[in-house]
Queue: 4 jobs
Job 1
Amino acid sequence: MAFYKRSHAGYRRLLPLFLVIFSVALVLMLLIRKWSISDFSYIAVEEESYSFVSSSMETDNRILLNFGDFKPKLPQMNDFAISLDRRNFLPPRNIDLFPNLAENHIKIVLYVHNRPQYLQVVLKSLANVKGIGETMLIVSHDGYFNEMDSIVQAVRFCQVKQIFSPYSPHLYSDSFPGVSKGDCQHKDDPSKKNCSGDADQYGNHRSPRIVSLKHHWWWMMNTVWDGLPETRLHSGHILFIEEDHFIYPNAYRNIQLLVKLKPEKCPDCFAVNLAPSDVKSKGEGWESLIAEKMGNIGYTFNRTVWRKIHAKAREFCWFDDYNWDITMWSTVYPSFGTPVYTLRGPRASAVHFGKCGLHQGQDKISACIDNGEAKFELENVDKVPNINIDWPVYVFKNQEGYRAGFKGWGGWGDHRDQELCLSFAYMYHSSDALPNGRDASKHS
């Protein structure tokens, strides 16, 4: 009993000392944790700024695809392709003129090929868009053409970032994705011509300048959403336009309104559009918003929709049609299980112009000639936001056009194109997709 009393009294005298030691230890632990977090944050910023591929792989946004025994692998880039790939990591230009992007800005992606006369028109129209200085314009090039590059470098009306597809068939003169030695051409019979390649459903072998259209679009989408430091963590909407789209002055303000209204007015809509799905239509002029099938002029969607599209990579990459939009309408959208509607205004804020298709204009013998000097008559209503937030929504159902069951126009039968396409879906989510000799940790 006496021993118990002495021990109990000793513990009471030592208790304050224990509390002090515990408090000091706790403070030290918190300080160490704080220093560790600060150091990690600094490293993460450095990674995001200088290591394009490795940083994107380390985000929580990583998506693991599982397509059986498919092994993603990108082609070995030639020296010129590597130099272009490095340009993709450069910061945007014109930051000195436009140091800050608006808090609610919607980034704009303009994808281009080799129609400089068209590019001049769309850039001139963008320069007159209200609010354009609040956002960033990302120009995605299908390969490299000097005149196209020079035109974009002259842009001064907003922040501009250029990216170049390093796997464009236009960059490879004697190897895949370009023309490889021994490739079959047109309707060659492999057994008679001693050539190789897989024909499409109509018996035609691959044409690099044709397949580049679909390759570029898919590479661009994967790069913008999952690769670029400027957009890979962006969860909101991104606006996509093409070099043969004339953009009205009210386009940007209208798209901001539509994005804001979509959750309330059309919660089941996947996107918003600047123009009707019928490229010949300029709109109905009604006092109502329109919900219809998703068009290919000025379409805008968010990361949630991109994830649904990305998950359908196999459907996209295996469908025998060289057109990205027909592929989407005929196989990807129908696989979602619900109608894919987009929300737009009753008047177009962008129009398609020109007569030369993307696959035309590059053959010297049969070049498509078009000076791109289209005339656009703008009314006052096209220069200011013209969407009323109180308008109801009219839904167009069972519209004509490509839909599930269409077998495609072909041009996409070679297994190499299908596998390259599917590898693009992996390239920011798996080190296995890196081409031979490329080290993600050193790529800056």
Job 2
Amino acid sequence: MATTVTTLEKTTTIQSDDGMGGGSPKAMTLRSPLLTKKGGKGGDGSAGAKHQQGMKCCGHRPCELVSYDKLPEFLKHNEFIVDHYRSEWPVKDALLSAFSIHNETINVWTHLIGFFVFLALTVCAATMVPMEFEASHSAMAASTGPVANITGGNALVLRSYSGDGTVVAMRALRDASVAADTVSAAAGHRVARWPFYAYLCGAMFCLLMSSACHLLACHSEHASYVFLRLDYAGITGLIVTSFYPLVYYTFLCDPFFQALYLGFITASGAAAVAVSLLPVFERPQLRWARAGLFACMAASGLVPILHKMLVFGARPEAVVTTGYEMAMGAFYLAGVLVYATRVPERWMPGRFDLAGHSHQLFHVLVIAGAYAHYLAGLVYLSWRDVEGC
């Protein structure tokens, strides 16, 4: 006859006779791995199980930051950033990681904040109303400079645009009758706004896609492929739409060159998006090729700018807008160089993992360049609203 006893050591002891009668019983002890708790001190193991589950992310994978060496190939983009990576995190945890510290946190927030800044600028641009002021010589008696010398028969027509606190004012000195005609004509007609809004939408799309890519590309290889393509499309969209205010308003009275330049940059942008769909395009070895493609697209903007200065070089509007566009180009060029050379992290690998690495600097320079072009757009609007074609 056999009995079963469970010991404190989570063992099972089976005792039985030898079948001969009167003999001593034989014992055999069995240990079940299901009843063994590693590292525990007594108990039934439930506490250890709960601890192990707490270390899991969604009950499947550990949500922990890893080093560059532990990344799958599709996440290896910059070997000089050596730690604090998220690797194949679930979507929910990847989204929530926007509020935690890792090597993409600043990348996410620089362009996400930039998106909301440009959204606010777009709302301001959509709601601002140009204001015309006609000031007589008596009202400007206290003024200094050339304006103070206006005779009583002349007037100052001032059109102001205020988007983000920056006021761009265009002044035109005319005879009293000419000034009145200008104000009445401007009140009845405003130049088309769609090129300016197209640029603002292109900037917001670029910033939002960049932020989404840095936040969610760590989820899987497929997610990385999709979001990187959206990121490249956003960069292309920003470059292409940057041409629209420049070309449309500069050549408002010359439809041939207007259509030529707009058609060229739009076709170039479509070709760049098509090329970016190739899987080989995202390889780290082609970093310079990617930077070169986008840089060449942006550099082609020098052609309509030079054309503008040849035709309108004597006008202050052309000089001011060209200054903003040169500032934009300088910011973008600096960003491309930082992105391609991967400085400063290449000089001290691991030192700039969380803050200060090249991609974060690239993001800041992109926002600065985009804002410079926004200011140029305000000048274009005020110029053509006053003058038309």
Job 3
Amino acid sequence: MSKTGALDLASGLGGKISKDEVKSAVEQYEKYHVCYGGDEEARKSNYSDMVNKYYDLATSFYEYGWGESFHFAHRWKGESLRESIKRHEHFLALHLGLKPGMKVLDVGCGIGGPLREITRFSGASVTALNNNEYQISRGKELNKLHGLGQSCEFVKADFMKMPFPDSTFDAIYAIEATCHAPDVLEAYKEIYRVLKPGQYFAAYEWCLTDHFDPTNAIHQKIKAEIELGNGLPDIRSTRQCLQAVMDAGFEVIWEEDRAESSSVPWYLPMDKGQFSLSSFRLTAIGRLFTRYLVKTLEYVKLAPEGTEKVLSILETAGEGLLEGGKKGIFTAMYFFVVRKPL
């Protein structure tokens, strides 16, 4: 039920940004980043604007090429990417012990692919938190199409300032979402606040590994490309994330970099040298087709001016993620399960 056609891609481009303002929005977004003279402090102080611009511009491309769940996955040989993504989501639900009757929070839900899968898998009721209006409207549309209008709800809010009373939820999860936080400790503190005592929070985090060398120019270039291509204020290390979740008050039950046990590299979808019929649009041929499609759509004015620039930003992201993964300096699946003490 994802948007899969050329006209669907064109109609969604820019999200809630008016079509005649897409080009200027892309240029404003670029200026936040190192590659275009920006700096970390500007990204952190303007994180809400930066992240909203990013998802307004990128969401239609994500859905066109990736499907409804915008994240990577632990992989086994013989699995399609979509099968791996589903198992990745089921793995998280199992470790949280989700079951019918539980009230669960999805922090930074995208268009709701994971929450729909997790709701069907576990029977839990999921509240989806997102600060991007376009993604929420698309998520609500998909929930209705999937028949999940009653068991899931979307709330538009910043996860740094959640509109929920203390101790509201029976479980909380975040899938590659709190990497957008300007201050991860404050984000974890807010999650701690709305979680019931004795209950669990689980997350997949984007992190730098111990192999990252801040004095290495190539490593810094890769980091900057990932930040530009994915709307990130900064990228923390696995050690920083672990320390932050403990400083927020949580007890650590389990933590590991799931990338290390993945039989198939998590970054393989970014490798143009790979071919897959089930993920054709991620292959070199599929990406070339998308490039020409976007140029054509923009030329005939079915897609707004600036669309091709958005695609270039996402291609930069793919290159950074691929190189970061190959060099072992970046992981998209640092995983932890933590508990709020009684």
Job 4
Amino acid sequence: MIVSNNPKMVAEAAELLCEQTICSVQFNISVPESDSVSAESASVSIDVVSISDSALSCAASIQTTLVESSSTNFSPSIRSGSHTDIGPRKSNEDEHIRIDDLSNQLGALYRWPLPSSFYAVFDGHGGSEAASYLKDHAMKLFFIDSDLPQTADIDELFLEKLENSHCKAFLQADQALADECSIRDDCGTTALTALILGRHLLIANAGDCRAVLCRKGVAMQMSQDHRPSYLEEKRRVEALGGFIEEGYLNGELAVTRALGDWYMKSPIGFESPLTARPDVMQTVLTEDDEFLIIGCDGIWDVMTNQEAVALVRRQLRLYDDPQCCARELVNQALRRDTSDNLTAIVVCFSSTAGGHPGSTGGRQRPRFRCSGLTEEARDRLRNLLEGN
């Protein structure tokens, strides 16, 4: 049995168990009857009953058991890291952008009342030219020439205008690729952007890159992969006269949304089965939100959302460095024999990992005993519970 005096630690301990040996796990959570005892000091025990391979269901059930209220005054303290690798390909067609302080990049053009950050991943195909062009011209395409709302009030109307301007920026960037003579019409790129404005997170995606938010240890997918196998995309494509053949759009492209690839697009004024119009998702960050992972499909082809979140959480506890986390994500995908280029960005919402679950916060270190685990798993669990 593992016993901890910190309910926040339990989720991580069980996550480690889920990932290492997992289980049908039986949770016995005992809270003293006295009203004077807070939930923070409640004794929590976990009995490991049997072994299975599912980590996601365990982690999800743990988190729903230990729900805590979030402060509406939360303000993220942004820091990030990124890493890219050519993988087994002959060239790396990925590009990415990582800007923790957007006001520093835009200077006098930045008029928003809150700090903001901007991140993007571009996964090129048919060459690297389209992805490289978007990276080089991102500030102009997404901000300087974009119809961004300028107001002191971050309200619903502002956020709606911000979303609309970001969609428009994707379409303008697509047109810029068509107008650029140096970029062939059979060259294109997927694109995923993440804009953080104060506590507001806006994700825009066209293609199969993916953004995953870690909320109290649980992976929350923040974007939809635009692949021909996705039923809604298949229906949209077919309604516009396109077709899916052997998993490819019109028998040629593995995604249904992308920038560039103008040889597959209809003339201006006609809607094409292949579109650059992004899906956009917004959320308000709270103290439950720990970090955001943005990765190209080379990561997600070989890792589940929850596996990636668990890996980054472990790395943050060990090194407290998002750069190390991004590198380890890429290296783990390489070890799993991914067949593509690899790019990962990790954006943390706290200045240090000390506030994350797993830290003892100066309280007495818990005693524990466990059985049925390997020696390596037992050492990892001991380090986790003792806050190392």
